[in-house]
Amino acid sequence: MLVEPCVLNSDLFPFLKRLGYDYFLSEDGKQSLRRFTIVCNNTKALYNALKSTPKATIFVKPLSLDALKSAIIDHRVNAIILGRDNLSLFKKTMLSLISQYNKFVEVRLNEVTFDVIYRLITWSSRWIRFPLISSCAAKFNEVWSPYSKISLLTSLGASESDALNWVCNTPLELISQFKVNQV
Q1: Are 145 and 171 in contact (CB under 8 A)?
Q2: Phi, psi of 96 (to 5 degrees)
Q3: Which of 20, 28, 75, 130 shows the greatest Cβ crowding within 10 Å of its Cβ?
Q4: What pLDDT score was predicted for residue 54?
Q5: What InterPro entries does this protein map onto (predicted)?
Q6: Nearest-angstrom CA–CA distance, 139 and 10
Q7: Measured between alpha carbons, how far is residue 153 from residues 4, 82, 120, 132 in Å?
Q8: Where is mean pLDDT largest: 12-16, 26-30, 52-56, 64-68?
Q9: 125: buried, middle or exposed (CB in 10 Å: 19+, 13-18, 0-12)?
């Protein structure tokens, strides 16, 4: 059973099904599990956004150090988004916190550069236990197949077993964690 962690348009479900995905997390929440993304500059903005969020899997893209620390510590946040614009925030202390709180770290393939993926691969051996690789597709030509994701990860230095685990098992862990928290 394969899960795509981020789809911006639920109408892509037939195409995702052909690629082998069984479930997906969608920003619009029409056909599958709902996800909600928060982009915040500070702790106050994060807490205000968390107050008004619907029941969904919550992803946070922090743009400051205090927002990152708050997102890691807050139990309502399921995953942290790693991108080029917040890469400099991920220092050893923050990575240790991510490890301590068992947070998922998502890399979006539609807006990422290879150095971000390379850092994720490097950090996953020590600090990041649950890396998520997502397409975050709005159109059908933006969807990455599971094989393409695995090929990209292995070409950038990840072992085949790690790449397979991150693409197949980590999204299932996220969904199971979300369902347990809802009960």
Answers
A1: no
A2: -65, -40
A3: 130
A4: 79
A5: Pol/histidinol_Pase-like
A6: 10
A7: 16, 16, 10, 12
A8: 64-68
A9: exposed
CB 97 within 8 A of CB 69: yes
| 59 and 81 Cβ atoms separated by less than 8 Å | yes
d(CA 171, CA 166): 7
What whole-number distance in Å separates Cα of residue 143 and Cα of residue 161?
22
Domains, in order of start, for the chain = 2-182 (3.20.20.140)
Reply yes or no on whether the pLDDT at 140 is more than 50: yes
Amino acid, res. 48: N
Copy the structure tokens of residue 58. Answer: 């919550």
- Of 76, 71, 118, nearest in space to 97 by CA: 71
* Other beta carbons less than 10 A from residue 68's beta carbon: 24
pLDDT of residue 32 exceeding 90, the answer is no
Q: Could you give the CA distance from residue 75 to residue 101 in angstroms, rounded to a whole number?
A: 9
Cα(83)–Cα(21) distance, integer angstroms: 24
Whether 95 has a pLDDT exceeding 90, the answer reads yes
**What is the Cα–Cα distance from 153 to 119, expressed in whole angstroms?**
11
**Helix, strand, or coil here: 131?**
strand
CA nearest neighbour of 170 among 135, 134, 117, 118: 134
Displacement of CA 3 from its chain's centroid (Å): 12
